[in-house]
Amino acid sequence: MKKTHIIGILVIAVAIVIMMSSVGDASTYVSFGEAIERAEDGDMTKVHVVGRLKKDPQGHIVGMNYDPLVDPNYFTFMLVDTNRVEQKVVYFNPKPQDFERSEQVVITGNMQNSVFVADKILLKCPSKYVEKEIQQNTASL
Amino acid sequence: MINTLIGDIGHASVIVAFVAAIVSSYAYFMASRATVDISGDDSWRKLARGAFYVHGAAVMMIVFALFNIIHEHRYEYYYAWSHSSNHLPVHYMISSFWEGQEGSFLLWIFWHVLLGVVLINRSGKNKVWEAPVMGIFSFVQLFLTSMILGVVIGDLKIGSSPFILMRDFMPDTPVFAMDPDFVPADGTGLNPLLQNYWMVIHPPTLFLGFAATLVPFAFAMAGLWKGKFHEWIKPALPWSHFAAVTLGIGIMMGAYWAYETLNFGGYWNWDPVENAVYIPWLVLVGAIHTMIAYNRGKSGLKASYILVIASFILILYATFLTRSGILGNASVHSFTDLGLSGQLFTYLAAFAVMAVALLVYRWKSIPTTDKELTTYSGEFWVFIGAIVLCLAAFQVLFTTSIPVYNSFLGFIGIESNAALPADQIAHYTKFQLWGGVAIAILSGVGQLLWWRKGEKGSFVDAITLPGMLTLLFASLIIVLSKLGMLHETMDNPVFIILLVAALFAVFANLSIILSLLHKKISLSGGAVAHIGIALMLLGILFSSGYDNIISQNTSGMVYSREFPEEINRDNVLLWRNTPVEMQKYSVSYHGQFQEVVGVPGYVNTELLFPTADPYKAIARGQIVQEDKVYFETGDTLDLYSPENTYYKVQYKEREGDGNFTLYPRAQVNPNMGLLASPDIKHFADKDLYTHVSSVPDPNEEKDWGELQEYDLAIGDTIILNDYVAVFNGIEQIKQVPGVALEAGDVAVQADLKIFGERKNYHAHPVLMIKNQMMGRVPEEVADLGLRLTFLNIDTENNRFKIGVNASQKDYIILKAIEKPFVNILWIGTIVMSIGFVMAIVRRKDGGAKARPAAPKEKRKVQAA
């Protein structure tokens, strides 16, 4: 067998290992229901959940708690997933500053003791890259 | 008035550029035919050249028109309105230019034009390449200009024009129904995170790198097309070096920008947008290696074709990923989807299919060698290096493309919910770290064998000294880490392996430079670049593998019962003026500051009286900086950017008397909320990286307690919020900041001295009678959380009424990280670039006589 063949086989082997291992590391988008099921089965892998913040009719966010004076590394909020299931989420970091403005929230983490412990929060702010309104108070010429 | 002329000029130029690119690519194609070569007829080539120059001129015109729109604040145009504002300084207007997708396409087109002109003029002695190479160039330009064409045919939208008017972009907005000539008075401004000098130079560098990858690709295609299967390597090689070094520098500039501006605590986050350019860079570097190996050993031609083509296709793939909106939830900072995904995919698919088809068609004709490479030849190890680079690129590509698999499966009707790994840093590090180890070892071994001409005996001689030095220094570093050089002992075996491998690469390449010193130093570009890569690996190893969060919160474990397992609490609350001990520092926060035009450093916001114009303030006291008075009380001051607040944080060493001040920044932006950027103290052996993670919401009114009234005579002492205060009396004043006093108006201020913990404060609340109305200007002592109001005067009894509100003191929440030896990473980047430039200089004339230079292997990895 030629050396190039051996190398070729090795390269393919490594590529397969990379793919298998990456597939194993890949997370999934799930609902809270599934996240709870996983936790009950003892599966502690981290998942992604897409949701919206719970708001009252006036548009205020409900169930959000961050009191830096008590603990700056403790932030909780209620997230409603795409199946309209509500779940308390804990984030052991300061509250992201533009949290209130976000429309959609993606969290990464897992269920622990009946709360979802998030270690990453990704905010999708509609205003971030496209501004849709002209400020009407700007003077017209 | 709406200026439609400049937009029309711009749009017409886009169309001219597009048409000229069609003409140029067709004419170059005709000029490339074999019959033309033989007949010597150069009329097609002349036409094509002319068309390319017309295209270039039109592109310059587009650039001029777009910049004019931004520079002259023509907010009737959507691009100016959405990417700039009145207060933006000129250098940030340049960043506005490429903040949007259209502008960044334009930047890319612009670089292609410049590179094309250089190629046309350099091809003088080598005329055979011009027609086919420039044919590919013009064909690419055709696709790129179509992206900014902004033409709608039926339902088909081709490109997105940067010259669209507000009223056409948002026809439903009521204001345009009332007045079609409405022009907004101000734009919505440039994303504050991009208001950074790196954002002025990082995108052009990166796009120059993007553009330069086209050159080797065009040469490879031309070689296949014209049957010059190996002649293309020589002219393409210096261009490949150029592309790799610009792309590499561009990537590292982006990393440095992220380090300085964003607050994720590092320079590399494995975000898909970062990965998208890292992948083609790795493959391009792999391509350089196989091309160099081919130059010497005449094997590896097919591999060179594959890698050069792959690197260009991957650049297109990167463009597709970041601009089509396909990343969706997976990335924080891709561009807005302009609805160009179909067009972007066509661009990607057209070149991928064209290149692969041509390669397959010609595959059998590409000469190969039957010579088997021996294990003791340099070329063999260069190939292994290229393979490792490609495997590393493949790994990043495979994971980064997860959102693409979802979309693709969704497209063919299969629901897929795969997401990127939850811990991306751990995921990528697991592979890339070993890639880094392999690259470091191979660059040492490969280089030594390359220059020793593959003799077993001399190789053993050559490797002995670097090997010994490596082991010596590695042990020394481990011992030093035990003695406190790092905050923990280096005992992680994986990190030790990377340390040894990188040190070996440094010493092996140093020994090559030394041996080349008395031969021909200009050959040592490869060795220099490899040392740069090894240094980068070392910098990454120390700064990411051994970073040290010094703001660990050891108190306030209020919620710990809920979660017994250990949770990192990386943020600390700092009350104003109250020091907190963090490892070897005592850290304290001392108020909010602003930047004022004409004053060095920062000015306390307590000295700035706000006016109706947020960019102007009135000095409440003398503005003094280091014993020099810059402004007097009552002067009007210009603020650079009222959005930016700087939080003064003092660090004092607990043992020893070293102390320094940092001003981490937070920006209040109406569109994006509050954005924090770090301030970094650079030491020779580490950086201290500090940012605020949260501050009391500046838009929320402070919660002042109930007003307490005090009836005072001169000299009375009172207790306010636990502080002792003395009422010293009143005086009449002539000026009240922010108020125009007229004849008959009277203003008096009270003088209270308050004894704080650290210093004493003078509060001067003002009472005035203006137009027979009573007016009050309260004074706030933010340090103490007090607000004093001069309520009334009883002139008969000489009694004065002072009202006092108390509130919570000001605070910030802070995170501080030590990053050991991060400087080595930046130094390594510079060394690597120098190595590349040396190689380009040596090869710029095709390197006809000299021996092929050393191989280059380079990698970077985030060890975390």
UniProtKB/TrEMBL annotation, chain A:
Keyword Iron: yes
Keyword entries, A-Z: Cytochrome c-type biogenesis, Heme, Iron, Membrane, Metal-binding
Subcellular location: Membrane
Main location: membrane
UniProt-listed Pfam families: CcmE
Top-rank taxon, per record: Bacteria
InterPro entries reported for this sequence: CcmE, CcmE-like_sf, NA-bd_OB-fold
Protein name, entry field: Cytochrome c maturation protein CcmE
Originating organism: Pontibacter anaerobius
Lineage, top ranks: Bacteria, Pseudomonadati, Bacteroidota, Cytophagia, Cytophagales
TrEMBL record, chain B:
Membrane-spanning ranges: 12-31, 52-71, 105-121, 133-153, 206-225, 237-258, 278-296, 303-320, 340-360, 380-398, 431-451, 463-483, 495-516, 528-546, 821-841
Keywords, ordered alphabetically: Cytochrome c-type biogenesis, Membrane, Transmembrane, Transmembrane helix
Pfam families hit by this protein: Cytochrom_C_asm (PF01578)
Keyword Transmembrane helix: yes
Residue span(s) of domain Cytochrome c assembly protein: 102-324
Domain of life: Bacteria
Assigned protein family: Belongs to the CcmF/CycK/Ccl1/NrfE/CcsA family.
Protein name from the UniProt record: Cytochrome c biogenesis protein CcsA
Organism lineage: Bacteria, Pseudomonadati, Bacteroidota, Cytophagia, Cytophagales
